[in-house]
């Protein structure tokens, strides 16, 4: 994760070592190098521009510090700005005042929604919640079974339409699942919705219909970090088509560059709430911008 960016930034900082004071030229050259490193990491251009502007402004205004040498000062500024671009504070899950808390997952097919539903369910159950997973992806024949398998592995119950009743209506399934949760004391409902391989208006409409039927407390946009700049475009399309409160970034384990992670917050204005880092149920955490920044600068 972030290997290229880490390496590039390390070499930028190394070139500043031993300098007594940073001249205007040093700052310009450093900003140029950081810009290239971000572009190489596939960070979206508006994000790179905003980032570099902040770095330059802060480096120029930096006080002569006794405690930190120039290289350390630049590292600190870059660290602070990385934390900022990644969202600043950790965004915690918001629970509804009156249970169940309804969480809806939306995203493209293959983005990792079903896997995430299981991870999220297990993570919540470990914190003494009583989640219910909901199979509202009735588009693909296998999707329901897949969620049932994930639920079994995560030891979290799954609400699914009865087999043999035709395709079924995902909106009805979602609505019925909330009633079921109320009856059976599930305090959280996690609704897995259908995705397509590309952005498609019918899929968006279906997600919007489910949203309107159950008024989720949290809509999470699930996106594969490995698709780089496409993640940003898809994020924008879902923002316009369905809207969401936060982002779950998946497959960070396979993302050597980190462009999606570094761009999505700034572009969409929505925080990254969860990070998925592998196929196993435990490869999942709440997203901490400060820890992610330290990892990049490690
Ligand atoms: P969905 O179509 O959005 O429901 O996506 P799935 O949950 O079925 O995931 C698609 C594929 O990605 C599956 O093979 C998952 O095992 C895999 N996957 C999901 N999350 C991750 C992750 O964080 N890292 C890796 N390496 N693979 C993942």
From TrEMBL:
GO terms for molecular function: 7S RNA binding; GTP binding; GTPase activity. GTP binds at residues 107-114, 192-196, 250-253. Keywords: Cytoplasm, GTP-binding, Hydrolase, Nucleotide-binding, Ribonucleoprotein, RNA-binding, Signal recognition particle. Signal peptide: none annotated. It is found in: Cytoplasm. Its EC number is 3.6.5.4. Residues 271-284 form the SRP54-type proteins GTP-binding domain. GO terms for biological process: SRP-dependent cotranslational protein targeting to membrane. The keyword Transferase does not apply. GO terms for cellular component: signal recognition particle. The keyword GTP-binding applies. It catalyses: GTP + H2O = GDP + phosphate + H(+). It comes from the Bacteria. Belongs to the GTP-binding SRP family. SRP54 subfamily. Part of the signal recognition particle protein translocation system, which is composed of SRP and FtsY. Composed of three domains: the N-terminal N domain, which is responsible for interactions with the ribosome, the central G domain, which binds GTP, and the C-terminal M domain, which binds the RNA and the signal sequence of the RNC. Involved in targeting and insertion of nascent membrane proteins into the cytoplasmic membrane. Binds to the hydrophobic signal sequence of the ribosome-nascent chain (RNC) as it emerges from the ribosomes. The SRP-RNC complex is then targeted to the cytoplasmic membrane where it interacts with the SRP receptor FtsY. This is Signal recognition particle protein. The gene is ffh. The chain holds residues 1 to 298 of 529 of the full protein.
């Amino acid at each position: 994760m972030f290997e290229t960016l880490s390496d590039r930034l390390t070499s930028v900082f190394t070139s500043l070592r031993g300098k007594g004071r940073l001249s205007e030229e040093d700052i310009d050259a450093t900003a140029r190098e950081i810009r290239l490193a971000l572009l190489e990491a596939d960070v979206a251009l508006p994000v790179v521009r905003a980032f570099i502007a902040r770095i330059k402004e802060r480096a120029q205004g930096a006080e002569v510090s006794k405690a930190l040498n120039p290289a350390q000062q630049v590292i600190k500024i870059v660290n602070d700005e990385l934390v900022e671009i990644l969202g600043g504070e950790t965004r915690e899950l918001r629970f509804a005042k009156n249970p169940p808390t309804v969480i809806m997952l939306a995203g493209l097919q293959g983005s990792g929604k079903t896997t995430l539903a299981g991870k999220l369910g297990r993570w919540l159950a470990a914190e003494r919640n009583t989640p219910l997973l909901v199979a509202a992806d009735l588009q693909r024949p296998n999707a329901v079974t897949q969620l049932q398998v994930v639920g079994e592995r995560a030891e979290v119950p799954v609400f699914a339409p009865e087999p043999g009743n035709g395709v079924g209506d995902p909106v009805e399934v979602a609505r019925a699942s909330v009633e079921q949760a109320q009856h059976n004391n599930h305090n959280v409902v996690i609704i897995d919705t259908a995705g397509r391989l590309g952005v498609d208006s019918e899929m968006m409409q279906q997600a919007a219909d489910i949203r309107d039927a159950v008024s989720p407390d949290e809509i999470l946009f699930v996106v594969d970090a490995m698709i780089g700049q496409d993640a940003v475009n898809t994020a924008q399309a879902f923002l316009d088509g369905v809207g969401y409160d936060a982002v779950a970034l998946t497959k960070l384990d396979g993302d050597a560059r980190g462009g999606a992670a570094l761009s999505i917050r700034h572009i969409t204005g929505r925080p990254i709430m969860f990070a998925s880092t592998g196929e196993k149920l435990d490869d999942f955490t709440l997203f901490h911008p400060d820890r992610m920044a330290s990892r990049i600068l490690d």
